[in-house]
UniProtKB/TrEMBL annotation, chains A, B:
GO molecular function annotations of the record: hydrolase activity, acting on carbon-nitrogen (but not peptide) bonds, in linear amidines
Protein's name in the database: Amidase
KW Hydrolase (keyword) present: yes
Keywords: Hydrolase
Keyword Hydrolase: yes
Region forming the signal peptide: none
Family to which this protein belongs: Belongs to the peptidase M20A family.
Domain of life: Eukaryota
Stored NCBIfam families: hydantase
CDD domains: M20_bAS
Pfam hit, one: M20_dimer
Every Peptidase M20 dimerisation domain range: 215-312
Length: 425, 425
């Protein structure tokens, strides 16, 4: 079993060709495969066919999550899950999420062509809307499945994209509004493994090739609305203005400064929207979203407190009253992964590369595994991202690292299955 | 002649009812009548019919400017123009522009029903796209007509709205792509008068009811694009970021601070747009437009210089390289009005109210008259704006002030016509 090898060429060819066909940007190697778009439907249809061809049973749940299950010898056991996502940012890359699903398919193909019989079933999972780029709220459908997210099924169904389409309609439109309950208690897993690119610079900087991920940092999003008074840009004296964009600008600067000053973690304003579309009007309403991430939940709260304290100082200094409101829109608590899964990954990695090539690390990005870890044993495998770049067309992980990650995933699954059979982890 | 009176009730009823029918916002007394929209077509059609009914000849030029000309006794003279605009901001009021056109119609109606024969023809003018809210570039079509604007006919025709519709197609679509040359040398005026609301607080603050406008302050618009490096909001360390939105925020603060500090004039950022629509992505590209206005061109240049000097300081202080580019998109030089027109307005006002009710002033907003003043004698009449509010649904000018403005307009025209006949201004 330890000698079983994935097919590196097939993995990389499949990953590149499916990206080229469904969602490639025309001017770069980047991707735009928004969740539940036509491109997403096409790659889902392809995935389902590939899995059926190698004998998997397909379940689609109420959030469009696809479970492709290869049977094990045991008929009374839950499957070992290998999950990630096929959707991307509007201008993302070919590896974030996609590698994890394609590697899971390569694991299933390898098991199939070598006629390997695992004790437990093995489930490939494509989680819907991990990116939160079309319907707001990242890692949405693994969150619903875990029942631990603050956004339950009906709330997610009702979310609208910028065109006004609801998530439920979008699922129905592409034929992925399934009937399997999106709930781990009714459609469960034994555990969850996820191969992912690091999306940061640490592995590359340290000269390592495999990251054994032990946790995911905590994160919270806050929606801020600044309110001022509209007015004519020519006739309103400077000292008579309540300019919502000027105040918002000072607040956005304060977010950056609070994160840099305290060193508690990272804080980002990624989206800004002004009510005004006229060059000659003083903006009266501006909205933006703050993304705060730290290695512990306490640090997230401390950084958020620091940010809002500096907001109060900014608003107090403005000559005329502008005001701001904050809504906590979304959060993912710090996630600690399970020892059994971490050990399976570490031992699998040691079987493939020297110990000096491996490091333990925390994930600084959110992943579906953060939600699965709330309800089933979970861990992740990281492989290096060139220059730490992600959410960008220049995202890149070498074919060798993609293959190494898939090989570690295969071996981690086999080791976990073996240990779980006897209970001797 | 000095006893000739406009019909105050008719003016105000017409103004309100045409607003209610074509472009009224449903939740306020505000207006959304974007240029060349269906609402604009409807009010234009109505205006053309009203003018025809009282014996005017209609010309529509290549930019859709409507000239409704009431003949004079002289057949070899150019008309005295009374112009303004019927388009509004996306959430504007019922008086900005609209009052000037409705007052001009009321002047024509008054002349008609009193069977007054003027020496020169009188032309009502509805200038297209004064607001620049749908197709960028305010006072666009009077600018083309004057031939002094940096945006000539073909460039304006090619502009696109946010839906991608060109201005030429929009003109054709509503039936207002006329054949009269949009050029004062081929479709000329003797002079141009414009009644407008002040859009600022000065008349109200001073307790005056008529402003004799002697000039329009200079203005320039600059488009700024800030470039950073896209990245993942969770995995990119704070000290490794080139965040275009953080830099843009510091620049927008600097615009406000430079204007407040120098006291040279006003500077506003009314529009901001980020390339990024993802909460989890560090923005790599942000665009905004700066609107700078001062009472002289030298002061405009001095304030712009001060702003860009502070930009360089902001960018130099950023830890990682972000950069910015500036494009001068539009400008309107300081406009000095013509003594003959100013005198006609002042004398007309003195005939209606006490001298203590009248003040000379500069316009701080741009108007079509700024362009006409480049090529024909021009002046304006201001009436008070409640609380100085404009470009806002709360814009308000009392019926009494609307009527007073229209009455001054009528008498200014009659006085000018009289003086022009003999050359004794």
């Amino acid at each position: 079993m330890a000698s079983l090898k994935i097919n590196s060429a097939r993995l990389n060819e499949t990953l590149q060709s499916t990206c080229t066909q469904w969602g490639a940007l025309s001017t770069s190697t980047g991707m735009c495969r928004l969740t539940l778009s036509q491109e997403d439907k096409n790659v889902r249809d392809w995935l389902v066919n590939q899995c059926k061809e190698i004998g998997c049973e397909i379940k689609v749940d109420q959030m469009g999550n696809i479970f492709a299950i290869r049977p094990g010898t045991a008929t009374d056991k839950l499957p070992i899950g290998l999950g990630s996502h096929l959707d991307t940012q509007p201008a993302g890359g070919r590896y974030d999420g996609i590698l994890g699903v394609q590697a899971a398919l390569e694991v299933l193909r390898t098991l199939h062509e070598n006629d390997v019989k695992t004790h437990r079933p093995i489930a490939l999972i494509d989680w819907t809307n991990e990116e939160g780029a079309r319907f707001p709220g990242a890692m949405m459908s693994s969150g619903v499945w875990s029942t631990k997210s603050s956004a339950p099924l009906e709330a997610c169904w009702g979310l609208r994209d910028t065109e006004g389409v609801t998530m439920q309609d979008a699922l129905e439109e592409i034929g992925y509004l399934g009937t399997t309950p999106c709930d781990y208690r009714e459609n469960g897993l034994e555990c969850h493994f996820e191969l992912h690119i690091e999306q940061g610079p640490l592995l590359e900087r340290e000269g390592k090739s495999v990251g054994v991920v032990t946790a995911v940092q905590g994160m919270k999003w806050f929606a801020v609305r600044v309110t001022g008074v509209e007015g004519h840009s020519g006739t309103t004296p400077m000292d008579n203005r309540s300019d919502a964009l000027v105040t918002a600008s000072r607040l956005i600067s304060a977010v950056r400064d609070a994160a840099s000053r305290t060193g508690l973690g990272v804080a980002t304003v990624g989206v800004i929207k002004s009510d005004t579309s006229s060059q000659a009007t003083i903006p009266a309403g501006v909205e933006f979203i703050i993304d705060v991430r730290c290695s512990t939940d306490d640090m997230v709260d401390a950084l958020a407190t620091e940010i809002f304290k500096s907001f109060d100082a900014v608003v107090a200094e403005e000559e005329n009253a502008t005001s701001y409101d904050v809504t906590r829109t979304w959060g993912l608590p710090e996630s600690k992964f399970h020892e059994n899964c971490i050990n399976a990954v570490r031992r699998a990695a040691l079987g493939e590369v020297a110990e000096s090539q491996i490091m333990d690390m925390k994930s600084r990005a959110g992943h579906d595994s953060a939600w699965t870890s709330r309800v089933v044993p979970t861990s992740m495998i990281f492989v290096p991202s060139k220059d730490g770049v992600s959410h960008n067309p220049n995202e890149y992980t070498s074919p060798e690292h993609c293959a190494l990650g898939a090989q570690v995933l295969l071996q981690a699954v086999l080791r976990y299955d073996d240990c779980a059979k006897t209970g001797a982890f």
